[in-house]
Design goal:
Layout: E1 2-3, H1 27-35, E2 40-44, E3 54-57
Antiparallel strand pairs: 1-2, 2-3
Length: 59
């Protein structure tokens, strides 16, 4: 998950390594996502599209 409004790129704030594991997220990051979900997006990377195959902006 990245920090960034629609139309902008931002840094990774939560890294999802794969479906076989869980992730720990800092409480402050979760609070900010809950406070302003539209300021974050998911970007799925693949071997074919290492810069991102699909992006989904939270609302």
């Amino acid at each position: 998950m990245h920090d960034g409004d629609a139309g902008t790129n931002g840094p990774i704030v939560i890294d999802f390594p794969g479906p076989e594991s869980c992730v720990d997220v800092e409480r402050d990051v979760l609070r900010e996502i809950l406070r302003n979900p539209a300021g974050f997006y998911l970007d799925v990377h693949t071997v074919e599209y290492p810069d991102g195959a699909i992006r989904g902006q939270l609302a």
